[in-house]
Amino acid sequence: MNMKTHNTQRGATLIEVLVAIVILAVALFGMAGLTSSAAKYNQFSRMRAIGLSLVADYTERARANLAGFSNYAYTDAYNASSRSTATSDPTRAPVACQVDTSNPAAPVNTCDTAIADYDKSQWLTNVANRLPGGTAYVTADLTPATAGVNGLPATRVLNIWLIWTAIEEGTGFFQQQQPCPVAANIATGTSVNCMYFRVTL
Predict the structure, then answer these.
(1) Is 2 within a domain?
(2) At CA 99, angle to CA 146 and CA 101, rounded to 5?
(3) Residue 73 located in a structural domain
(4) Closest Cα partner for 43 from 137, 186, 171?
(5) What does the pLDDT read at residue 87?
(6) 160 lies in which domain range?
(7) Does residue 134 contact residue 162 with C-beta atoms inside 8 Å?
(8) Is residue 138 very low, low, confident or very high in pLDDT (cuts 50, 70, 90)?
(9) Which residue did the predictor score with more confidence, 117 or 187?
(10) What is the rounded (10 degree) CA torsion for 68, 72, 77, 82?
(11) Domains of the chain: total
(12) In this structure, are residues 158 and 72 in contact, taking their beta carbons and an 8 Å threshold?
């Protein structure tokens, strides 16, 4: 008696293969997107760390020259056309200053302004060299000590915005991560980032 056997094994159809390829492609594209985003976030974190270092440097300079505190403000409007020359060194020697205490009732000391101008020039150079297209916008707020309260010092606050070129021009991924100062006149849609720091001396 002849017995017919049937082979129960069968191959995948073309449609099944195509569906598997599509699913695999979607998964791979998703992983590629996550990798790209992670790289951008890592670079932004690195810029943030550089920004913290720059702000700490400027803060220490201002703290060492409290007499010239108001001169640590830098409120020039942002100029996108100057970014290509941002690495040029504007550092200049300290301006000659005068100290005359021969008249205690009216002492003369112009060194605080000269030192502040020199510190600011050096610091802006560091910002331009360490951040891509880097510049800054700084306000120096001074609140006098309350009258009649002994031992209460004046309050000095530096508001520092570090302004730098976006990681990828035109992508919009990191544009305007933090609000930029309105007075800096940064056009809407400009590929720059602003990092804001408020420091009380």
Answers:
(1) no
(2) 75
(3) yes
(4) 171
(5) 46
(6) 14-200
(7) yes
(8) very high
(9) 117
(10) 120
(11) 1
(12) yes
